[in-house]
Amino acid sequence: MGEQLTIDSTLNCDVLVIGAGGAGLRAATQIGERRPGTKIIALTKVVSPQKSHTTTAQGGMAAVDPKDPEDRTIFHMFDTWKGSDCSADQNVIKTVCELGWEEVVWLERHGMHFSRTEQGRIAKRPFGGHMLNFGEMKAFRACYEADRTGKGIMDTVWNESLRFGVTFIGQCVATELLFQNGVCIGTIIFRYPEGAFLAILAKATIVATGGNTRMYLVSSNCRGNTGDGLVLALHAGLPVMDLEAVQFHPTGMVGPGILASEALRGEGAILRNKDGEPFMERYAPTAKDLAPRDLVSRSIMQEMREGRGLFHEGHKAQHVWLDLRHLPKEVHEKKLQEVCSFFKRFVGVDPEKDLCPVTPTAHYQMGGLPTNEYGEVQSDAHTIVPGLFACGEVAAASLHGLNRLGTNSLLELITMGRVTGDKVFEYLKDAKDPNNLPSDAGHIVFDQFSTYLNSQGREKYAQIRNSLRNLMQEKVGIFRAEKPLSEAIEGLKELKEMAMHIPIEVTSLKTNQNLWQIWELNNLITVSMIITQGALARKESRGGHFREDFPKRSDKFNYHTLAYMPEFGKVTFEERPIDMSIFQARGEHYELFDYIERKY
Amino acid sequence: MSDLYNITLEISRYDPDTNLSWIQSYQVEVGGIIRFVDVLRKINDEQDPTLAWASSCEHAQCGSCGIIVNGKPLLACELLVQDAVERFNTHAFHLRPLTIAPVLRDLVVDLEKAYNKIHETKPYLIKPTALPKEGDEYRILPETVEKYVEATRCINCFCCASACISSHRHFLGPNATMANIVRIMDPRETAKEERMEILYNENGVYRCHTSKACSFVCPKEIDVSHFLALGKEDNF
After folding, report:
1. Is B215 in the A-facing interface, judged by CB distances under 8 Å?
2. What positions of A carry a catalytic annotation?
3. Residue A582 to residue A79: CA distance in whole angstroms
């Protein structure tokens, strides 16, 4: 190779959005609405924002209409707190739940095609862990667009961004954050088609790169969800928070793990084991199939462990059944049109007549870049990084703590996107134009890419990727314990070393799939290391993080994990306190916002 | 279900550095319920890491992996090997990139460029109708939504545009035209005149030759030509 890597050109803007999914573009539209003429550049890894991972979200967006005769915002706040296993931040819960309906109306007025009731209002459906009267019975709280709610949301914020003249740059990744006197002033990007490096200087930078669960063998995530935004921050010396909290969605389609929405159970579908028993009744007598995801996923795993699962010959994988046969034709054909077609196409079963084979699938990262309630990124529990913001799945404010309720992610994308947009709007008032590219700009990324391009050795990309996925699935999955976690850490060190010795087959920078994938693989290994070390350090079970050797929640761990990794494998931890402001305000029902027992 | 298939893929390749194009043949042994994206990955893993192809969600919801298989534009992620063998009645498949945008490498086309046609139709509400009172949603009866809801399912994979005999020249294309028609039918849109101009302009719906190839190939099984017909008749 030996070709000198250089920055081809520099672009300037007011606001740079890294990741043009639901959260990033809701922030962009908020800024566009409040400050017309703001020059916004939005980057996306895919070809168009419309193809972002947000578009694959299915079931709904939780929001309580203040005019609802039965539901109340305080119930939603309580459900979110309880669902998080008492580890979400209450200031964020309050902000997000209170803004929810306003944002649903915002989406509707900007053209989203919500499903409607007979009266023409926005229709709602039940979802796991969302209940009336502090856990008594299921609530109709999820506003939806059939089973393509994420697509409806994505189309709406993308369309609105077009209206405001947001400049999209597709098929690129942000590879190195730029700073000047401690202020974030933009990033270096790598464009896939031309293989060019560009610098983008901005007064404010919003990281909204989404999730990371592609290191698991079975995952509902897009091919490109490789934790890029987290690694971007880690390379800048910034911490990540609560990465040990990985959500496994209970119902992935057997095999690849394609999402089969919780909306199926919201509409009445039932999980069954090999004997046909509706087993969730044993694990969650009140909520049954609509218990929170962490609990349902563990129950499914338990059934399979105790020999009540089934084996899928085609995919060579264990599964249980999801039964939709009793649901009305209209539900199959209209309300769950996409998922039912996925079952037919990808699994070859007809949900109207057949039982559907499902298995838990790695779905969502609860943790992420630590931010305050305004989306400002933190460098420790108390300090913010000027000019740097984050929202959406890559960020942890944290609405979800260690377990997220279904339909709260779309809610979070939109509300926290807006809140972050508002904060950036304020920030722009006094923000200065970054004048020059720092002299050392590119040192991280050029070093990385030169290593990949000049690497010698016999290692194979595919083999390392497969080993990583098997390792994480087996040792850092739904059930965790000290020994497998320690083994995983050693395994990850070996994989990292191996990943340095993959000879590259295509040396041109143009549309270089090899180079792109090796970069992604390194990101996945980096993030996996922090997930695993975080899981080892948290010697308790809480939400999506379950330790067989410490199966109970412990008050000793009533905090968020902040993790730094200045050098691969060398992780240091700090604690960030959980915000208890609803409890501390001593308002109505405040006692329910204490560290309460969690039963469904 | 677990039977193995021996298939041959003839893949159109293109190297942007040398500007050379050629057809390369791969023999693969795979299970029947494996998707074509998995087959391509298997080729990368076991035979040829240089073969470039595109995908993202890999379950027919994003429309990033459109390719042409034995003449038919489709999503590589939702074509299972056993279905392909049955549908095309062969074990040999010719894979080509979509024809609606420049090829970047092998099966990867620059869809970013194709999207400009969607942007031209202004897919947002240009001028929303007067709003109901604060905090309230606009009321739309389900029977109204029902008339255009199918069209809102479009994921812009450009399979229809690739199959369309007119869209390579002046026509905006079936999917872009349908994006405009959605907003014409949307009761919240008041800028109907501007929308009609987009619909009937030089690149508009009358460029459509009514081959109905769009409806035939749509991976989401949307009857695209039905919506285009409504546009031609001004019958919304």
Report:
1. no
2. 293
3. 13
